[in-house]
Design brief:
Blueprint (H helix, E strand, L loop, with lengths): L14 E9 L7 H19 L3 E3 L19 H14 L5 E10 L2 E10 L2 E7 L23 E4 L2 E7 L8 H7 L4 E6 L7 H16 L2 E6 L1 E4 L2 E4 L3 E3 L5 E4 L6 E9 L3 E3 L10 H19 L4 E5 L4 H14 L4 E5 L7 H14 L2 E4 L3 H10 L1 H4 L6 H22 L1 E5 L3 H6 L12 E2 L6 H14 L5 H5 L19 H13 L4 H6 L4 H13 L1 H5 L29
Amino acid sequence: MPSSGSSSVFPSTARKLRVIMAQLDFLVGDIPGNTQLVIESTQRAIREHQADIVVFPELCITGYPPEDLLLRPSLDVRVAEAMETLKEAQLGAAIVIGVPLRHNGLLFNSAVVIDGGEIIGRYFKRFPPNYQVFDEKRYFAEGTEVLMLDIRGVPVGITVCEDIWKDGPVEDCAAAGARLVLNLNASPYDIDKQARRKALLERKARENSVSIVYVNLVGGQDELVFDGGSMVYDHSGVLTVEAPQFSEGLYPVEFLWEHHCQPVSQPLPAEPSLEANVYRALVMGVRDYVNKNGFRSVVLGLSGGIDSAVTLAVAVDALGKDRVRAVMMPFRYTSSMSLEDAEAEARQLGVQYDVFSIEPMYDSFMEALAEPFEGTRPDTTEENLQARLRGVLLMSLSNKFGSLVLTTGNKSEMAVGYSTLYGDMAGGFDVLKDVPKTLVFRLANYRNSQSPVIPERVITRPPSAELAPDQKDEDSLPGYDVLDQILNLYVERDFSAEAIIAEGFDRADVERAVRLVDLNEYKRRQAPIGVRITERGFGKDRRYPITNAWKSGK
């Protein structure tokens, strides 16, 4: 609950201002559709909430991130048409939208304020980010000016996303006389992000004696998931309003303006667990990727193991059971336990379930390969053939029925290459790509706490690819509780091998893990995308050359 620093007693002469946080899901590239969504949402905000100002996320007109669509020659024409449409709509509230605008030959990530059918202010983002998944400096110039407007009698400053993380923009708004700062965002989710946002906003509001409205995008875009979590801090640094994460909506905030622009406090949502938030991010990422790309359904291989079990649960929660198909593809090494558990999962979730043995196909391939393989001993080649046959089956079902293949590899496996190119990596979207194995177990327990869908022995049995007799993951890898800590230090925090060893880890385990990460960059380049939930996922976050002679020890 808000602390006593946020008073609910105001003078009767205080002026009221109703601001709506439009936490919405926009489609990248759909400029006409996004423009119409702004119009319809504003009309609803006026009708249902008597809006004075409606604040939309960063670059909402193009969707975020538009990437090289910003380089298309027709961008300026399309944006100009959108601006005319918004002005002609003659909306009864001021709207603050995010849009790319060209000025003096340079393109800027901009916020535009439209009121009474006219553009009354333009703001050019001053700090386009160029780190992690962001490469805005590829497209945008840096703004230099402050924007402070009188809106309904209240002095309002405008900033865009990264600007609030830097010194200057909020401070300059306050110095110009602003008592309310509106901050438009397209800030992607990671596990600790909301806590970092809150600490920042609390400090910025308190130090500058301004209330801050932080409006964030929601929805999935390729590997990124935007979690919303829009919020308001008052001038003393107290959180007074917070919208739920992963939920679209129009969230009203009433301000009373006299000496300060004071938001009226609202009950705050309960703090979700890490597992709940990650699970919701995966569900949103799958739902938006499938729906925005026009897939009718998804298909995945169900092995009886924990990764495919969690992937199946996420898919059903994202799309509904009628749009999910699970396929068990047993071989001679598949245990009866795996067969029983896979069927139990599919039946419990109510999805279409098929069993196709790969034994006849495997025998045919081995017969064809008998001559070139003569005189050799069985090795991982025969194991990988099993995985590749399963990939062929799933891709055939995908082609025939228009289903997206969901792969099931987790971040730990992707890191060390514990996967087969054109086998279990064959597919269009990897739900668990950025989820370490130890977190997969926690997600399974979380999902079962909502309703039991994963058999307990799937969670407790030792993980195995079942590509050889009595095979277990830990036969060739350190235990996942150790491996995931090593991978976190090396992949996400850039520790050297020696620095990891100095943290107390076994030298052999570290050197093996680091070597496998480095060797398998070529595999990850060919892997499907997947939901990003950490500060540094494989993909846009981590870009290492495949061909290199860098030594990872120091």
